[in-house]
Amino acid sequence: MKCFPFFNGDKKDKPNSTQSMQSTNSTFTEGEVKRAGSELNSLNISAISTESVRRNSYPSLAQRPSNLRVFTVSELKSATKNFSRSVMLGEGGFGCVYKGFIRSAEDPSEKIEVAVKQLGRRGIQGHKEWVTEVNVLGIVEHPNLVKLVGHCAEDDERGIQRLLVYEYMPNRSVENHLSTRSETPLTWAMRLRIAQDAARGLTYLHEEMDFQIIFRDFKSSNVLLDEHWNAKLSDFGLARLGPPEGLTHVSTAVVGTMGYAAPEYIQTGRVTSKSDVWSYGVFLYELITGRRPLDRNRPRDEQKLLEWVKPFLSDTKKFHLILDPRLKGKYPLKSAQKLAIVANRCLVRHRKNRPKMSEVLERVNRIVETSMETGSPELPLKSLALEETSSDPEAKNKKRIMDLKRGEGGWFVRMWTPKPSQKC
Length: 424
Known about the structure:
Elements: E1 3-8, E2 14-22, H1 30-40, H2 50-56, H3 59-62, E3 69-70, H4 73-79, E4 88-92, E5 95-103, E6 111-119, H5 124-137, E7 148-156, E8 159-167, H6 174-178, H7 188-207, E9 213-214, E10 223-225, E11 231-233, E12 240-241, E13 250-251, H8 263-268, E14 270-271, H9 273-289, H10 305-309, H11 316-319, H12 333-346, H13 357-370, H14 381-388, H15 394-406
Parallel strand pairs: 3-7
Antiparallel strand pairs: 1-2, 4-5, 5-6, 6-8, 7-8, 9-12, 10-11, 13-14
Helix pairs in contact: 7-9, 7-13, 9-12, 12-13
């Protein structure tokens, strides 16, 4: 039985062998990996073989035109000082990322900064993730998605080389700045802007193209910041096309990062765009609290973020206690409360009751627009929740009030308990 583990949030992208699910994906032979790599490194991404396209479930993407540049290993060695540790930006289960300089396609005399990801030799699965990134980022373009500049697939004396070249994001990831070790904690205004940018990126993937892409690994380490602190989604190796018309979900191997995955995805392997909405809700609580979804270094009752915040949400006098202390009180409390309400709606246990990302984005936009207002009363959290729905029909208001009383309004009232996952 072939298993693909969750990645544990304690160490970036490190496989956790204790929790895994059986894969439903097809496998490649070593020969197919080499052939697909050679074909992808041609002048046009659409040259990928029919069989490889079928196996990767991306026929409609792979057959679309792409403007990606094709690099050789030699070019990327030169760009990164032979993959020197002195220019390494990060290291994880996927491999290593290096800062480099390449010649501009528009003006060869000009050099531009890039980030070069060298995928580790994880065999078949690593290759499939590389193919997915090329297929997805080769044909989508949005201000809140990291731009893929080009790719490389070559065989050399070290074996199969798979590399990706991205635009350089100098301010690293949101996870870096939420870390207690960060010397540049994010202000509240910056956190709201990041929440807005991330919602825009997910809305584009889910609703603004003629096909749907489910990110499937949305987390703070995959939200990067450019030189102007604009947030962009990155790392699409686990992305999947949304379900075909007439179907409600995509069945797939359960992979991702512990603490972010939606409960129905963990239990059944069925993934939908609402799985990303759940992950986004977790991300909002990261921005609010400055804490990771799962932190084994904290006291036992504080290790799981969603469980830890639960007692503070129904008491306005206690709510401020979950706010990131590095904000030093410099935030509008009402703005933080409203963002928590949005998070709660993303974290509703039943996926059908979660909002679409476009609806989430609309609510976040309103919070951003009003966050700088002063003199407005700080209403209790429950009152704010009802205020948010005042424009709904009266019947919906009554139902929501009853839901809150019965404890069915979201995860924080009726805690979900996961079933034991299948082990290898």
